[in-house]
Amino acid sequence: MEFSKKKWRMPRLAGDQRNASYPHCLQFYLQPPSENISLIEFENLAIDRVKLLKSVENLGVSYVKGTEQYQSKLESELRKLKFSYRENLEDEYEPRRRDHISHFILRLAYCQSEELRRWFIQQEMDLLRFRFSILPKDKIQDFLKDSQLQFEAISDEEKTLREQEIIASSPNSSGSKVVLESIYKIPFADALDLFRGRKVYLEDGFAYVPLKDIVAIILNEFRAKLSKALALTARSLPAVQSDERLQPLLNHLSHSYTGQDYSTQGNVGKISLDQIDSLSTKSFPPCMRQLHKALRENHHLRHGGRMQYGLFLKGIGLTLEQALQFWKQEFIKGKMDPDKFDKGYSYNIRHSFGKEGKRTDYTPFSCLKIILSNPPSQGDYHGCPFRHSDPELLKQKLQSYKISPGGISQILDLAKGTHYQVACQKYFEMIHNVDDCGFSLNHPNQFFCESQRILNGGKDIKKEPIQPETPQPKPSIQKAKDASSALASLNSSLEMDMEGLEDYFSEDS
Amino acid sequence: METFDPTELPELLKLYYRRLFPYSQYYRWLNYGGVIKNYFQHREFSFTLKDDIYIRYQSFNNQSDLEKEMQKMNPYKIDIGAVYSHRPNQHNTVKLGAFQAQEKELVFDIDMTDYDDVRRCCSSADICPKCWTLMTMAIRIIDRALKEDFGFKHRLWVYSGRRGVHCWVCDESVRKLSSAVRSGIVEYLSLVKGGQDVKKKVHLSEKIHP
């Protein structure tokens, strides 16, 4: 792609020519774009796509993929940002072009680290899955052909020949469905996940795959291709980065993915150590609450716990001196020799604040990072309780936190369905007594900020409705009871917190 | 039939390698028509010699070289390895990380000992016509699957020399298959899992069950 500072003018392509370059509303992004665009458009396209991919991520967390709500919200997001999504709409050229170019721009930004690549691939896959799901059946064949995938639907005669076998080899598919569905013939090696479990009919080196299974295969292909492409892009990155017009933009883009990373807050030094105990029950997310409790009880935490909790504390405003004091006080109670602490542990604390070694100011872990990496083992207290705790253990914990049974079962269901962050949002709603937490959780420090905002800011605390939201009468009575007791405790805690934190949150909007 | 005296083996082997071993067919197979340059020359062989001495990374320039070396070494066992990026006998001269295995036939190994829990005539390394029937059945079943389900055309079944058979699948595309697909094929063919439990027979009439 060439870049010029010329003012942008609409290309004067005739209708047919335009449609020819983008025959479908979705694509595999096999060919990079080859036109000139202005720097401004470059930037805008990139930003719009980042917005889109972040919505994809948030919607995927807040709703089950494929449901009515998910689909309609994602569609409106695409429409709002003017990217392509549906066939047979008016004037499809521009949205498809935007989609094409913006994808390739983001490749430049997101190829740079393993984490970025993984995030990018995940969202692009979800996006493709959505677009494919609303593609009309007759368009599927054309799309597959144009994407150079060796998938061809077999003729009806061929289908009838093999009908029995295909029915027999597909799990959960009744005979009638097979007759209606298209069957695709692909080389067996491309259907690894299907044939290894004998879930597809094989004949003479080909797998006969019904439509619904083809999607999984297509997505795998897409992931493999994109992964390779990103690796290639990373290698040619130095050439791109040498263009100083692009360098700042690309850096900004990949940084903006992490959203707020809570590393440099204006609230440093506004929390005192003796507030931490009460804050841990009121405003800490469960992961940090359990780490704090374990620290107090055992006067020790292992490395994973120290990292996760220590950086979180930094994010809520502890200074280096406070942190050193905090950890040392606690460890000494565990009969640790003060000198040993100074020698062994204080260096690490200073390191995590960026005062030693290569002086990186480490950022507190996001939810995704906690959920996906470094799972806890025996003797560890870090990780995400919704992800890493046994359901039984999690239930007990929630009970000890005085969450109502109705709330507990909702939370457990969400955790079981792998919606860990939504489960945590539910926990937030329950302990703060609000219907809707009002944010999409992706960082423990975000939980803390939002919690403090509710407890101290000018916002009205939303009361729990007395009418049951769930059909059972019992939980709602519990809820009402909890609501009033929660309100009561909130009031008293408000008084306590106000003193220390008034200034802290005066800057908040 | 005379009983076999292991002390005679070295002499017998010498004779075998001079008179009986099918060098030209062996070479013709592994050379694959000479279509790909150096395919034979980059193939690894390993020999197990008398007293269990094991040497890897043997490779040869042509049939004559192979013959000479085998007659010199009199190996008790010969393993055919993969085709590498360089001549295996020079692998130490190659830059670190550059010496890689590139292609290999897909090989199935069926051992009579796998049937020890269902045969009563023999055990471990012994075989007899009675229990060999089990082997024949296995061969027929797997061969049919490889041919009809996977479309493999070039399948070579050989007696391994002791208590089992090997099947070498030599199709060009198969030689390039990734290890993931290879284990997928094995998984497809596996029915008896986990020692105790036998999974119930699965749907298709054409499907294979060991």
Q: Globular, elongated, flat, extended or rod-shaped: what is the shape of chain A?
A: globular
* Number of helices, counting only DSSP H or I runs of 4 residues or more of chain A: 25
Strand pairing plus helix content of chain B: what structural class? Answer: alpha+beta
Q: State the low-pLDDT regions of chain A, or none.
A: 1-15, 458-509
Q: Helix amount of chain A, in percent?
A: 55-70%
The helix/strand order of chain B is HHEEHEEEHEEHH
Mean pLDDT of chain A: 77
Overall shape of chain B: globular
Spatial strand order of the main sheet of chain B: 2-1-3-4
Approximately what portion of the residues of chain A adopt beta-strand conformation?
Answer: under 5%
Estimate nothing, just give the exact number of structural domains of chain B.
2
Considering the protein shown, what is the CATH homologous superfamily of the largest domain in chain B? DNA primase, PRIM domain
For the report, how would you describe the main beta sheet of chain A?
4 strands, antiparallel
Q: Tell me the greatest interface.
A: A-B, 16 and 20 residues
Q: Which percent band covers the strand fraction of chain B?
A: 15-25%
Structural class of chain A: mainly alpha
Main beta sheet strand tally, sense and closure of chain B: 4 strands, antiparallel
Architecture per CATH nomenclature, i.e. the level-2 architecture of the largest domain in chain B: Alpha-Beta Complex
Residue runs with pLDDT of under 50 for 5 or more positions of chain B: 194-210
CATH topology heading of the largest domain in chain B: DNA primase, PRIM domain
What's the number of extended β-strand segments of chain A? Answer: 6
